């Protein structure tokens, strides 16, 4: 139908449009009823465009042009009659003149062709036209398929561009971290150089002490020679030196007690060394350091014992010859100073040994708490401590410092195998059951105060993780409405009051019964279900950067499920 027919403008141009239809039917013997749509979408510009009447009849015009040729008079006449613009259509007289010209140009054989020959010719031409039409339809379908492939490639290109942007952001973050690590390495190098300087200073001080000891030994030799000369005088003054002997005895007892303490410390240290030798390489460096300190201590103790012997001899000499030789008094003061210095050194060594004992005790405590790590060659044994307040099932456990948090599962069953030895929940009241499912059990391993405590979480069947020594819960469901949650909450306290804060944005995907794990500043939430009935499990993995408070989507897991086990 021409465009002017919809506006009720009838006239000769409309008759010429109908004449073009008649000519097309006469030439093709097929009524053009299966037309293309009046509009189409341009894939390059993504715009809707209108088709002309000739374009809509392309499947009929193409066979006609292939049969008669594009320059044939009948083809050009049909094209002019089917123009959208009425002014470009021929008039009646022009159409009659064109028909006369075509009749005059027909070759004589065509004029004398009988009916059967004409029908055969038209049949052959129609078959060729149909084959060409089928080929055109196939090409059109291929073109549509290619257009769909182009659209898919464009969408994939957009996704790749987004991934490139995310990769660029992560690369910038990694570069910033690398710069921070470089600054830390510079600081460590400076500290190492400073430690080298301090070590060289200590070595020089030790050399000076060795020289002082040599000088004292020479003085002791001279004193010993002098004592041999005065031995006869000492025999005469024995009765007068009783009090002095008692003082010396007290000094000897004090030194003996110090030596006994040192020997006990040495025995204790050797026993601790024997125990620590059974541990793995995690404490090897500390043990080597302690052995070096022990060697230094034994050498210092040997020096102290020799110096104490010299001091005793010097004190005896000074007491005998006090009235006769002023030089011996000076030597006595020097020896007293040496003794005080050595006593200070012994006190420092004793203090150092106490610190080592504390370190060894803490190491032994760690070894007792972690037998599977520090004593791998010993058989593992379970140790029962205290009864739990509830018996969790399919729950998660998080360790922060010296506290263990258990929750996120079914907390209202009685006696679940592997869940502890205490009685659990079991109330028939619905509110009690809901509170039980919202509960988080906190266990303190320090032994100070109550060991078990119950904390009420904002949701049920949530995921727990530790990030920067803080407890974080994610997902779950509302205990009253059962609606699946996408919130992320962090545990805090204010005047011994439990507070759940929400400083982070919500998860992109709401989850029921997911699992979570924390590593440094990252929180990863894995799998779960979109409904509380577990009918739609997820394989989605999402990561939260707690410093920038942004969510990132990681690669999905091979299979969807709820509450998987996670570990680093």
Automatic annotation (TrEMBL):
Domain Protein kinase: 1-111
Keyword Coiled coil attributed: yes
Cross-referenced Gene3D superfamilies: Kelch-type beta propeller (2.120.10.80), Transferase(Phosphotransferase) domain 1 (1.10.510.10)
Molecular function terms, GO-annotated: ATP binding; protein kinase activity
Keywords: Coiled coil
InterPro entries recorded: Kelch-typ_b-propeller, Kinase-like_dom_sf, Prot_kinase_dom
Domain of life: Eukaryota
Coiled-coil residue spans: 126-232, 266-310
Protein name per Swiss-Prot or TrEMBL: Protein kinase domain-containing protein
Organism per entry: Geodia barretti (Barrett's horny sponge)
């Amino acid at each position: 139908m021409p465009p002017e027919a919809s506006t009720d403008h009838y006239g000769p141009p409309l008759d010429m449009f109908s004449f073009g239809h008649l000519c097309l039917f006469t030439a093709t013997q097929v009524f053009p009823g299966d037309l293309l749509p009046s509009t189409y979408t341009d894939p390059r510009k993504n715009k809707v465009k209108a088709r002309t009447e000739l374009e809509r009849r392309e499947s009929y015009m193409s066979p006609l042009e292939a049969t008669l040729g594009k320059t044939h008079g009948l083809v050009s006449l049909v094209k002019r009659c089917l123009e959208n613009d009425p002014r470009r259509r021929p008039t009646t007289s022009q159409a009659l003149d064109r028909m006369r010209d075509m009749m005059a140009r027909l070759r004589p054989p065509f004029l004398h062709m009988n009916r059967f020959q004409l029908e055969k010719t038209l049949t052959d031409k129609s078959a060729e036209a149909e084959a060409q039409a089928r080929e055109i339809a196939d090409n059109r379908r291929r073109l549509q398929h290619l257009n769909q492939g182009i659209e898919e490639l464009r969408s994939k290109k957009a996704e790749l561009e987004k991934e490139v942007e995310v990769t660029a952001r992560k690369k910038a973050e990694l570069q910033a971290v690398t710069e921070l690590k470089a600054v830390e390495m510079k600081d460590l190098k400076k500290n190492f150089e400073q430690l080298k300087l301090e070590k060289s200073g200590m070595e020089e001080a030790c050399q000076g002490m060795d020289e002082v000891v040599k000088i004292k030994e020479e003085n002791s030799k001279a004193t010993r020679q002098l004592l041999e000369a005065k031995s006869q005088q000492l025999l005469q003054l024995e009765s007068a030196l009783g009090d002095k002997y008692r003082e010396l005895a007290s000094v000897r007892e004090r030194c003996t007690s110090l030596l006994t303490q040192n020997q006990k410390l040495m025995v204790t240290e050797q026993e601790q060394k024997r125990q620590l030798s059974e541990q793995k390489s995690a404490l090897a460096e500390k043990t080597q350091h302690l052995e070096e300190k022990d060697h230094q201590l034994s050498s210092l103790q040997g020096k102290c014992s020799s110096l104490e012997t010299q001091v005793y001899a010097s004190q005896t000499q000074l007491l005998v010859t006090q009235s006769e030789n002023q030089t011996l008094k000076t030597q006595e003061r020097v020896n007293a100073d040496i003794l005080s210095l050595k006593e200070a050194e012994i006190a420092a060594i004793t203090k150092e040994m106490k610190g080592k004992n504390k370190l060894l005790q803490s190491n032994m405590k760690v070894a007792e708490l972690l037998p599977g790590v520090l004593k791998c060659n010993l058989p593992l044994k379970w140790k029962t401590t205290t009864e739990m307040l509830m018996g969790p099932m399919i729950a998660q456990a998080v360790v922060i410092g010296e506290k263990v948090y258990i929750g996120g599962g079914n907390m209202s069953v009685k006696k679940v195998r592997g869940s502890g030895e205490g009685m659990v929940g079991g109330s028939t009241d619905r509110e009690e059951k809901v509170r039980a499912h919202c509960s988080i059990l906190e266990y303190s391993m320090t032994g100070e105060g109550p060991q078990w405590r119950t904390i009420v979480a904002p949701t049920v069947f949530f995921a727990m993780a530790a990030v920067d020594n803080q407890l974080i819960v994610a997902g779950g469901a509302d205990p009253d409405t059962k609606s699946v949650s996408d919130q992320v909450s962090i545990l805090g306290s204010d005047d011994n009051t439990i507070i759940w804060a929400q400083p982070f944005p919500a998860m992109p995907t709401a989850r029921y019964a997911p699992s979570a794990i924390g590593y440094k500043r990252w929180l990863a939430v894995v799998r779960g279900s979109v409904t509380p009935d577990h009918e739609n499990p997820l394989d989605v993995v999402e990561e939260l950067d707690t410093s920038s408070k942004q969510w990132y989507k990681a690669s999905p897991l091979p299979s969807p499920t709820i509450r998987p086990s996670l570990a680093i």
